[in-house]
Structures are given as structure tokens and as C-alpha cells.
Design brief:
mainly alpha; elongated
Length: 242
């Protein structure tokens, strides 16, 4: 039997530092879409007038942008400060506890990488003992699982989260700006949000190389469950305070 020809595939680059901010964008836009449409459903079911519902959505959108942006800034900055603290401690270990650090390197090579050649291991450890900066970068990866590509600027994370939250809230805001009766506006809002949620799920799947249709339906499903709860709460409030 003839050998099968070698199938060659073009090399596909990784996302590099872009992946560090994908979470901020996805979290912001999904939160904006879902929280705003759930707010509109709850207030619609409570019997609020169209203009008051629109004012409520505008206030909710602005509050969400500020809350999402500030929260992401503080979370990202705290994470970076924690990492910097760990790196300072690692530098101290390398300076004053080098044998212990080199033993960790050896254990990683043997147990995690399953390297069994003792000569190769010893040569690598010997090189690391002379290259302190290389050792630090190596330990950052194996102990903390971080690289330079994982760095996230708090201001960039804040801006992305806040901006994408506003983009996510836009379909609901736009729907109630049209000169239609409130019922039609609510239907339009639900339609636009379902389409948007499905599209965001598809984009997420394309980035993560997963099933696009399933990801889109998953987004709609979670929002649908929340929508039912919001409507029930709003309608119950209307009955209670009628």
C-alpha cells in the first residue's frame, strides 16, 4: 500500500493579546443585552407608561455602563496588583532560595512534561541557574500560568466593558423610541434582542471555534429564562399595587 500523501494545513496564528479583552467585550455586550431587555420586560409587565419605561431604560443603561466599567477597572487592577505581588515574591525566591526553585523546575519537567532524559533535565536546570531572567519567565508560566500576552490594561478593560454594555442596551432603547404603541415596541424589542443575542453567540463560537448555532441558542435560552422571571415579577407587582 502506498503511503498516503502528507496533508499540509496553513499555519494559523493565535489571538495573542486580543484574547485578554474578549472576555470584557462578551461580558459587556451580553450583560447590556440581557439586563436591559429584562428590565424592559419587568417594567412593561408592571404597567408603566411608554415614556416612563423609556426613561427607566435610559437610567438603567447609564447605570450599567458606569457599574460595568468601574467594576471591570477595579477587578482588572486588583488582578494585576496581585500578579505583580506574586512576581516580586518569585524574584525574592530566585534570589534567596534558588535550589528550591530549581527543584520545582525539575519536578515540572519530570511530572508535567514527562521528560525522562536526566542529561536533558540537568542541562536545562544548569542553564536556568545561570539565566535568572529566563528562570523568572519560566516560573511565571508554570506557577501562575501567565504570559505577557495575558496582561490587561485596567483602563482598556473598563472602556471595552462600558462601551459594549451600552451597545448591548441599544436594541431595547431604540425599540421604545419609535412612535408605536407600547405593545408593538415591546415585541420589536424582543425581536431585536433575540437576533442580537443569537449573533453574539455565533461570534463567540467563531472566536472559540465551537458550534455557532448552539452558542447562539444558548444565549437566547438564558435570556428567555430571565425574561420569564422578570415578567412574572413585574406582573405580580402590578396586581399587588393595583
Amino acid at each position: 500500500m502506498e503511503d498516503l500523501p502528507l496533508i499540509r494545513h496553513p499555519y494559523e496564528n493565535h489571538n495573542d493579546n486580543k484574547r485578554a479583552y474578549v472576555r470584557d467585550a462578551m461580558l459587556g455586550i451580553n450583560d447590556g443585552l440581557i439586563s436591559t431587555v429584562l428590565l424592559s420586560l419587568g417594567t412593561f409587565a408592571s404597567g408603566l407608561s411608554k415614556i416612563n419605561l423609556l426613561y427607566t431604560l435610559i437610567s438603567g443603561s447609564l447605570a450599567g455602563v458606569i457599574s460595568m466599567g468601574c467594576g471591570e477597572y477595579l477587578a482588572t487592577k486588583s488582578q494585576q496588583q496581585m500578579i505583580e505581588s506574586e512576581i516580586r515574591l518569585e524574584k525574592h525566591h530566585i534570589k534567596y532560595n534558588l535550589p528550591t526553585e530549581l527543584k520545582q523546575v525539575e519536578d515540572f519537567l519530570r511530572m508535567d512534561l514527562e521528560i525522562t532524559d536526566p542529561t536533558l533535565i540537568q542541562n536545562f536546570i544548569k542553564e536556568m541557574s545561570k539565566n535568572r531572567e529566563g528562570l523568572l519567565n519560566f516560573m511565571k508560566k508554570i506557577e501562575f500560568g501567565i504570559t505577557d500576552d495575558d496582561y490587561r490594561n485596567p483602563y482598556v478593560a473598563m472602556s471595552i466593558s462600558g462601551l459594549f454594555f451600552f451597545i448591548g442596551s441599544f436594541p431595547s432603547l431604540l425599540s421604545f423610541c419609535f412612535p408605536y404603541p407600547i405593545n408593538y415596541c415591546m415585541i420589536l424589542s424582543l425581536f431585536l434582542n433575540c437576533v442580537s443575542l443569537f449573533c453574539i453567540g455565533v461570534i463567540k463560537a467563531l472566536l472559540t471555534k465551537n458550534n455557532a448555532c448552539l452558542s447562539g441558542l444558548e444565549n437566547i435560552g438564558f435570556a428567555g429564562i430571565g425574561g420569564i422571571i422578570s415578567y412574572i415579577v413585574g406582573y405580580s407587582a402590578q396586581l399587588l399595587y393595583r
